[in-house]
Sequence to fold (398 residues):
Amino acid sequence: MHDKSAVLVMNAGSSSLKFALFAGTDNVSIGRGSITGIGTQAKFAASGTGFDGKAFPEITNANCKSPSEGAKILLDWLDKVLPEVKLLGVGHRVVHGGDLAKPAIVRPYILAYLRTLSPLAPLHQPFNVDIIEYIQQERPSVLQVACFDTSFHTTIPAIHTRFALPRIWHEKGVRRYGFHGLSYEFIARRLKDIAPKAYEGKTVVAHLGNGSSLCALENGKSFYTTMGFSVLDGLIMGTRCGTLDPGVLLYFMREAKLDEASIERMLYHDSGLRGISGISNDMAVLLNSDSPNAREALDMFCLRAVREIGSALSMMGGMDALVFTAGIGENAAPIRAQILNALAWLGVSYDMELNANLPHGVETLISRPESKVDVWVIPTNEELVISTHTRDSLTASH
Ligand code: ADP
Fold:
């Protein structure tokens, strides 16, 4: 390592902290890891050229009661095992940036603003903000940059952000924001390099992971996305329901007498692939199951994706390219096949052999030359986007 500067990327959840370290001005990943099971059975794992052979920190339920405490353990550990590294700063994945169209160096007024957004993403935002505040208190010299899942979507035309509700609610922030923006930003950047025509044209990106959404890109900018006010909207996900008739919620409250916490748990944690299959939220498990309920979960997952691709392309007036990314999009060949087969009427044709035997982690064009739509599989890299933004923001501020 010639340049000893590094950026640490953190992605905090309710019971986990994922991290990655990027070194040098060329921003190369030298290690990644996670602290999982926080609050139940905390466990540290890390690998990569910078971390291999280093003893992991002692981690217990007593010294790591929250992702914030995990962050302190991680920073102390990095000081110890990589003393030669000069930490430029920490870049955070933050789910909600409200009106912020760009990453922000965390100053007190930014932190205060991010707290005001917690009611908009109550299951994610408080953990993202807590960890930033904790580092600020414990390590005031560490610079921090917040990168938002919403920012990429600030280009969406106003008509796509409005609900058909009384106007006053839009003014109060009840509107569609969109998420997974760091992933879409990465894909848009890659398209610019590897498929400039798709970048300049109309592309639908399917980010299919445990959380899933689609983004319609026009000229590399977000035009429409399926997640809206919350991360519940749109596609069927691992444990989330996706688009749901709001009358169902009224029924749950009035007739089934479910309280807010029960409804929230059902919509976020017990629905989606898990709820339909009754088996698992894990796509790999469902693909290996011969249960009819698992089959139905897969069919519903694909059908919803097809429905939403259709709605995105009809709003854009066409689709030059379709991109699959994230855990399912990159790895679940039968799911890609099922979605693509349903789009054959559009003139989509793809190489079945190639789709079924994709090299892992490689950007691949899987459509046939005669296909009316180019179909790509592009591995996403949200951490790289965060580390680049963090380095750029901190360098610009000096
Ligand atoms: P997250 O939203 O948590 O970042 P990921 O993008 O890591 O999620 O995607 C996780 C999903 O990807 C899981 O449903 C997992 O089963 C699926 N997945 C990962 N590898 C494979 C595979 N080889 N075959 C099928 N599904 C896979």
